[in-house]
Design goal:
The protein is an all-alpha fold. It has one domain. The chain contains 14 helices and no strands. The chain has helices at about 1-5, 10-30, 40-75, 85-110, 110-130, 135-150, 155-160, 170-195, 195-200, 205-210, 215-240, 245-250, 255-265, 275-295. Helix 2 (about 10-30) runs antiparallel to helix 3 (about 40-75), helix 8 runs antiparallel to helix 11 and helix 8 packs antiparallel against helix 14. The longest helix has about 35 residues, at about 40-75.
Amino acid sequence: MKQFVSLIRPVNLCIAIVTQALFFKAFIDPTFLFQKSTRQEIYLLVSIMLLTLLAAVCGFVINHYFDTKTDAINLKHQWNINPRILLFVYSTLSILGLGSSYLLAAEYSVLFLWWLYPLTYLLLFLYSYSWQKISTLGNLIVALFSAGVTAVLFMLPSILPSSFDLNPRYSLGILFVVFAFLISWIREIIKDVEDQEGDKADHYKTLVISIGFEKTKAVCIFLSFTLIIVELCTIYALVKFDLSWSLVFGILIIPHSLWFFKRLLRWNEKGNHQSLSRSLKMHMGLGMLFLLFIIVTS
């Protein structure tokens, strides 16, 4: 049981849910739980959170099912769980998640809910089965899912328009989604560099295996530079809402981004890849802290 709990990464699941709650309050509905909150709005938000949790757990389970060999070579996640149990849990939770999304789609007559979550489960399976072995494609899939944790909340106003007002903060939310996408993309590339020994043994064609370390490093530097540009655009956009938001974002985010960029320039193949990966996690954590600042000062 302890191994299974560890497998589904409860800390990551909690971070995903907290991020959704902060994002929703900061950018989708700043009046949520204070001036107005209908039962339907709360029900919808909780439903999306639960569907997100189910999809994430299914992704962790099926990915470990197909990734056992490479994890063993890379000395990562030594979970000794019966593969049949993994398939049973994956199948059960997938059916539960898909059934719940269909019920939600039928209740609110929302067309895109009919295909959004089935597509999510299909992509998770294809990623775990083979797409993670393909250069760039696997990294992009993970980055899209990471960004999608918050991006999915943009659909709530269209499902229940009577409960939401036109919110000018949506543009800030889009910038935050791009922020999360780029961080996740860079982090996945770095993790592939760290895991290349096991990936080679299992015939993966990840970016670093396909084009070599130096070119992979150049890609990461380009993406990191793009992230800094996005963050500077965010500072400009924040000025239109609140000068203090712009100042705090600049103080909280930009120095860490420049520090990480400097570390990337010095990165070598024998360097501490885990440290770089943790730095990106910290960067995302700073982003969450900024969301909390927006909520507190609104």
